[in-house]
UniProtKB/TrEMBL annotation:
InterPro entries: Low_temperature_requirement_A. The keyword Cell division does not apply. It comes from Deinococcus oregonensis. It comes from the Bacteria. Keywords: Membrane, Transmembrane, Transmembrane helix. This is Low temperature requirement protein A. Pfam families: LtrA (PF06772). The chain crosses the membrane at residues 59-77, 89-107, 113-130, 142-161, 167-184, 196-216, 228-247, 274-294, 306-325, 334-353.
């Protein structure tokens, strides 16, 4: 990977981190398989919602799931997973995540208790394994662990409360997690920049891969007509364009800046850009996957309106998260992307009137135009 051209202020020597892990290990990739399944479950939850409440439920579940999953990304840059004990603990954590994923469809019903117990399991292992870090992260975990356990206990309490009284407990759990970032509890953690950047790039790839799987799941045993195949190809093109917005130089620029940032700046980039920004991007991809899953089943004729809404808001939310990520890392303001996020909302009437296939084609054309405009403005592409 070539080093991108950056302002002279960013070309200082890399700042030492004290975090030993530099690249992603195979056990972490295996760990991601459970996360893929969890995203599939969330996609199914919002593909055919019964109302706005289902979106609220999915968001609350997503925030608790994504938070602790991202916590394992931070863990992976501080602790080697090469020993047998560490691997056993990771496999136990995988079991906890798998229970959480299985419980997602009924988490606000009979699945609330299994989800909460899985969350408590992965939270406990996360705190335990951080104690093996050979740097300040071993002590820093106790700045964040009370918030993690507090949120998990609130989710556990919600499992014993009848709806709708469980909603305030779930909201309180998410608020507890987010409050730790407002108080700067992450400051003493050490980060391995290359590992951290690569790991979050893999999260985006995993999410985009799930969107492709969702299209296949939407096809099922339907006859492979021309419109259906056309929709499938366009869906793949949409995922490829989203990949391009993230991995065409932006990830290299982000890694360079992240590597050369001082520890305080790096911590805030990690929370804002790789935390909030990536949360929004993955959430957007889940909505995209849900929209594509519905649209591919009815590419022509009168569309299922929820598929149009999910797809449009998903792409817009992804672009919004991407702008947060770009601004946090200083790799570009992203005004063109922000404008496109708003313009995409104007395509909803087109989809509702003419169908899912023309709507998807229009989204693909708009994203392609975005990349052309950015290429014309970026001297590195000329």
């Amino acid at each position: 990977m070539t080093t991108p051209s950056l302002p002279p202020a960013t070309l200082a020597a890399p700042v030492e981190t004290g975090a030993p892990v530099q690249r992603v290990g195979t056990i972490e990739l295996f760990f991601d398989l459970v996360f893929v399944f969890a995203l599939t479950q969330l996609t199914s939850l919002v593909a055919h919602p019964h109302g706005l409440a289902d979106y609220g439920k999915a968001l609350l579940v997503f925030m608790t799931l994504m938070w602790i999953y991202d916590g394992y990304v931070w863990l992976g840059g501080n602790v080697e997973f090469g020993g047998e004990r560490q691997r056993r603990l990771i496999f136990v954590a995988m079991g906890g995540f798998f229970v959480m994923a299985l419980s997602i469809p009924t988490v606000f019903d009979g699945g609330g208790l299994p989800y909460a117990l899985g969350l408590l399991t992965v939270t406990s292992i996360h705190a335990l394994m951080f104690q093996k870090a050979q740097n300040s992260s071993a002590q820093a975990i106790w700045q964040i662990a009370p918030y993690n356990f507090g949120a998990a206990l609130l989710v556990l309490a919600a499992a014993f409360v009848h709806p709708p009284s469980d909603w305030p407990l779930w909201v309180a759990a998410v608020a507890t997690l987010l409050s730790s970032t407002f108080l700067g509890r992450e400051r003493r953690f050490q980060l391995s920049p290359r590992h951290f950047v690569e790991r979050h790039g893999l999260i985006i790839i995993i999410a985009l891969g799930e969107s492709i799987v969702a299209v296949g799941g939407g096809v099922g045993e339907l006859a492979l007509t021309g419109p259906l195949l056309g929709y499938g190809v366009l869906a793949l093109m949409l995922s490829a364009l989203l990949w391009w917005t993230y991995f065409h130089r932006d990830d290299a620029r982000a890694e360079h800046i992240f590597l050369h940032a001082n520890p305080k700046e790096r911590s805030r980039m990690a929370i804002t850009g790789y935390g909030y920004g990536h949360f929004a991007m993955v959430c957007g991809i889940i909505l995209i996957a849900a929209g594509l899953k519905v649209g591919v089943a009815h590419p022509t004729g009168h569309p299922d309106g929820i598929g149009i809404w999910n797809l449009t808001f998903g792409v817009s939310l992804y672009l919004l998260g991407d702008v947060i990520y770009r601004r946090s890392l200083g790799i570009g303001p992203g005004w063109v992307r922000l404008i496109l996020a708003a313009v995409l909302l104007l395509t909803i009437p087109v989809g509702l009137m003419y169908g899912a296939l023309p709507h998807l084609l229009l989204c693909v054309l708009l994203l392609t135009s975005l990349l052309w405009v950015e290429a014309a403005r970026d001297p590195l592409d000329n």
